[in-house]
Amino acid sequence: MRLFDSQRPIYIAVFGLLCATGCIDSWEGPPHFLHVASMEVTTEEDQGTDSHRIEEVWVYTETDVLGAFPLPADIPLSPEQLGSEATITLLAGIRANAVSASRQPYPFYEALPTTLQLEYGGRDTLDLTVGYIEETQVILAEDFESANRFEMASTSTAEVVRTEEAEWVFEGVGSGYVELSADAQVLIASTNEQQYDLSSTGPVWLEMNYRCSQQFAVGLAAANAVNSSRIPILVLNPTEGAWKKIYLDLGPVIRTTPDASHYEIILEAYYDNSQDVTTVAIDNFKLLRY
Predict the structure, then answer these.
(1) Is the pTM of this model over 0.90?
(2) Which residues in the chain land under pLDDT 70?
């Protein structure tokens, strides 16, 4: 099929993208586009919040990876390469540890196989919903709806408090809240005697929502009957008033602390003097593993 001059740059760009992935060598007409408008999350009652930060969709055939496409996504598919009836698998992509260079499919969200009837110049549109895969074990560490498991250390001059003030609540009726100032310069806190067993041969991650006007760190305390060590893992930057979601890969810490019998979640912050009072708001701590 001959391409109109106005369409030629679009098809050349699509052709170049798919050749670069090694999936498609050529085709005779315009691709079939799959438009993925959005991906949402649904959770069971005992799995906590359905908040998410899915930013892209990863697309697989039975033999190849077609690529990762930012949402909303237009995914070009070749009827010549994939056939008139094609089954592809769609996975939800996230930023591991809030790092753009660490984008990947989230190991706890379901894969979505989809069968499409392909034709040159065709188009399908999908709004997708994913849940956690059946093997996922969800530990609801703290959602501040009725309690506050974070306890300050003896050297801490600031503390995590539970607030129901609407300005600082992410969802539900409560969130965690911290104020830092010249009179409260240090936050060192951890979940109190929860003793999470995170041993696993598979992935182990932490999900949480947060909002902050200065940096703070989140990590793990690894402990056994004799020793305990605090391991800050990720420093989170100011969010300019917005709530954000992170997916934190705990696997490297778990694997390098084989003598630990249990873990606690830790928070650390040191007043940066950028304002008279700086703030940290937190919610929906979830530990996930297989």
Answers:
(1) no
(2) 1-28
